[in-house]
Amino acid sequence: MPSSQPTQPPQSDIATAARAPAIERVPREKLARSRVLVVGDVMLDRYWFGDVNRISPEAPVPVVHVQRQEDRLGGAANVARNAVALGAQAGLLCVVGHDEPGECIVKLLGESGVNAFLERDPALPTTIKLRVLSRQQQLLRVDFENTPAHEVLLAGLARFDALLPEHDVILLSDYAKGGLTHVTKMIAKARAAGKSVLVDPKGDDWDRYRGASVITPNRAELREVVGTWKSEDDLRARVTKLRKELQFDALLLTRSEEGMTLFTDDGVLHAPADAREVYDVSGAGDTVIATVAVSLGAGLPLVQGVALANRAAGIVVGKLGTATVDYDELFH
């Protein structure tokens, strides 16, 4: 993908909106005190790298001679890994299968510094996103997935109750794979305990996220719920109505090349895109919500967390595949 310079949004009302504050260095030891519990759908991001030298005689498709395989943590596991990369303490509550990719996730989590709290479902094929690449270009993605058993999810809910007091911020990472079946109960329990709850949503049923502190959709995800907006004023009206109905303290809209916009009772705050080179946007949303969660866990104001998340997103899109941003990169 060619280099992309950040572009200013065409809407004049975005251009004149309040801007996120300038980045200030946060002491490393302050972020280290942040304790984030990530709950959600985990997956194995598997990459096959190879060369293409011919077209298949069976069909007009390239033949990839696979020469290297790389496995990375994906989904909620990548969110937790991003939190640890920034120097925070991160726990991960999730379900994986008793299979080869499940064991691979266990191994990678052990190496990552994430505190893993795994429920194992023997009948569940662990979710895999297999990407085939040649010369750094993705040619194909193949998904393997299924839904966890009801009993395993109930066990996860019981463990959630035990883990809640040990964490400052709860981050719910929904990839619509079934791991957050009890998300409404989790939000209610966490808010009752005085915890901030961040949600990365999926699908059009956001009533299940009712009462969350911050929800972080991208443009397509928000459009699926509120419809297509005609202007920034229209967008603000739709988001205000949604936040009031579902009792969200804040909504952070990630807007790709337009940066991100925060909607709260205090008004609208816009952070222009900070990308120097766009290489791969996969996993950028994971980096954004993890950075905000770590910031809140460290006692920083939400607007400062958004500014840090915007910078982190600008860095991570310059990397291939699901990746992280560490403390030194963020505050270089």
Automatic annotation (TrEMBL):
InterPro entries: PfkB_dom (IPR011611), RfaE_dom_I (IPR011913), Ribokinase-like (IPR029056). The keyword ATP-binding does not apply. The keyword Kinase applies. Residues 1-20 are annotated as: Disordered. Keywords: Kinase, Transferase. Residues 35-324 form the Carbohydrate kinase PfkB domain. GO terms for molecular function: kinase activity. SUPFAM superfamilies: Ribokinase-like (SSF53613). Residues 1-12 have a biased composition (Low complexity). CDD domains: RfaE_like. Pfam families: PfkB. It comes from the Bacteria. NCBIfam families: rfaE_dom_I. This is D-glycero-beta-D-manno-heptose-7-phosphate kinase. It comes from Paraburkholderia denitrificans. The gene is rfaE1.
